[in-house]
Structure formats: structure tokens, C-alpha cells
Amino acid sequence: MNYFIKNPNPALQFKRVPTKRTKTTGIIIHHYHHSTATPQVVNRWHRDDNGWLGIGYNLIVDMDGTIWEGRGIEAVGAHAANHNNNNIGIACQGRYDDNDKKMPDAQFNALVWLIKHLHVIYGNLPIIAHREVGVTSCPGKYFPFEELKRLNERGGTDDVTRMISPDVMDSHDDLQQFKDIKYFDTLISNAAAPGMLDIKIDNGISDVETALTVLFDAGIVNTPDYWRDVMKMIVGVDAVLIKMANRVRNIFERIIHAEARGEPFEGQIAVGNVIMNRHKSSGFPNGIHNVVFQTKLAVQFTPTVDGGYRAAMNISRSVRLAVDDVLCGMDNSKGALYFCTRESAARGNWHERSLTFLFELGNHRFYK
Ligand SMILES: [Zn+2]
Predict the structure, then answer these.
(1) Reported pTM
(2) CATH of domain 172-333
(3) Which of 143, 207, 271, 288 could form a disulfide with 96 if both were Cys (CB 3.0 to 4.6 A apart)?
(4) Rounded CA gap, 176 and 172, in Å?
(5) Distance (Å) from CA 78 to ligand 1 centroid
């Protein structure tokens, strides 16, 4: 049995993008109080009946052992009052207070795997029953909570690494099969994004530790340790990570070159910071590539559509050093999420009318 976190299909529709948690201190366990409901059904209950933005649970484990993404691993959930900001909520399909008196092995083992997976990402978080933090019987008196806390699979080997089986994944191409593993999904979709493959990288990252640092700083990899573990299991993942890190670098180099090559060094850094700030903000897409190429509502970075980005080939030393500094965490931006030129601001543009002005640097004005 290979476990992984699947995206529900059809995808769950939320009223808006869920907010990201800023800290994670525990895992709260629930049941659906329903034996057959699907994630889509629970999403409708929570969104349409309760008026929430969508399903309240971060993750779901069906009775057949399928693991689904609900609101998402990183999101603030809506599953345990006063505890949503810092806990991951896992809901198990089933009605463990009366109807379902024994949890199937498939569901139990998937749940054990999922908790161990979260422990790899977040460290050894305590496992909490909803009833321990709220006035409820959830997850039900027949739920095997004490057994769960021991984290021993039933009738199988205690093997957390089965998610990605080395015998089926020994080349880059095989990674494609694992699109619905959340982390690979991000990696692969970024790696395959248009415009990222056609460029020569002349200031390349060649070692995996630097690559992990860059990917971590860019928010693409949340857990370098997780990837070190994956690398031990799967041939070629280090090369994919290095490629990805170089692509992240290159996106930064090209967009900063296109937007700010004539600007002072500090201003070039600040433009990179705006991209990074957007990536970390819940109001913008996740991922450097998605931020730079965002076109929903409006084109966000003009060079991506007027040819400036594509033409950015001979990246100056200043821009390269600015990218180094952005990726190392240097931040000149005071939290800025927008910038424009002085000329357009002088015309009373949207930035000037609608945003909070922060500071001027070179020919750019920065706002949030
Ligand atoms: Zn509950």
C-alpha cells in the first residue's frame, strides 16, 4: 500500500483562499459523524450550511484508507474552536459514536501514516482528541484513540517511508506518476511551467544543500529535512531540487533585471522582496513563479507580457548579487506588496489612489 495525500476530484470550492497558519503545535483528531460522506459533501455542509469558507478539516481519511486534502495542510482550519490557529485537524470518515464500532485497518493504517508524515514535516506534534479541547464526544467512543496514539500500524511493518516506493521511482520521469503527492506536485508543476526551461543558467547552483536553502527561502520547500529523507530513498531527487533552485533563481534574476536593472542595488533587492512578500501573503498566489506570472484580475508584472522578461538574458552582476541577498533573507521592503514608477504615480495611478505609500527608492515608489 502506497499512501499519499490526494486532491479531491472534483476539487473543493472555497469562498476564498484559506489563510496560512503561522504556527503548528498539535494534531486534533475528529470523525465526520457520518459513515459515507465524501470530502465534497462535507465541504458543502461547512461552506453552504455553516457559512464557512469551505471544509473546516485540514485533512481527511476515508474508511477505505484514502487520504484527502481538505482545507490543506498549511491552512488555518475550522474544526476545534479556539484551537484552529495552531493545530492541524484530521477528520476520519465514520460515525464512531454509534454506527461504526470498529475502525477498518485500512483507515487506521492510513491515519498512522498521515500522522507520521506530519511528524516528519512539523516534528513530534502531540495527538489530541477533539473532546480533549472542546465540549464534544468527537471522535466518538468507538474511535481507537489510545491505539492510535501508539502509532503502530495494524498487521503491517512500521514503515513511514512507504509513501514513495524506491522500486517504482528511480528516474525523473517516474516523478510524473506522483503528481498527487502534494510536495511533488508543487515541484513538478513549477519545473514544467512555461518559460522556465528555455534559459541558460550561468550562475548556477550546483550542490543540493544550497538548492535546499534557496527552495526553503523561496517557500517552495517547507521542510529541508523531509527532502533529505526523500533523497535517501529516491535516485535523482537531488538533481530535481538543484534544477528547481536554479529556476527560482532565474525567475528572480529575469524579473528584477526587467523591472529594476537601472535602479540602485537596494531598490533591486526591494523589488525581489515584493515578490517574496506576495508569495508569503495569503492575498497572492503561492510560489515565486505563480506570483511573477499572475494575471488574474490584472497582469502583475508587465515584463511578463511585454517581452521584457523573455529578453532578460544578460543579467548584470548587481542584479545577481541582489538575488543572492533576497534569497539569503535580506529585506529592504518594509512589507511592501506593490511598487510603481514615480512617473506613473505622478499621474495619480491606482497605486497612489488605493494603497498605503511606504517609501521611495530610486525611481520606484513602494506600497502596501
Ligand atoms: Zn471533532
Answers:
(1) 0.48
(2) 1.10.10.2520
(3) 143
(4) 8
(5) 10
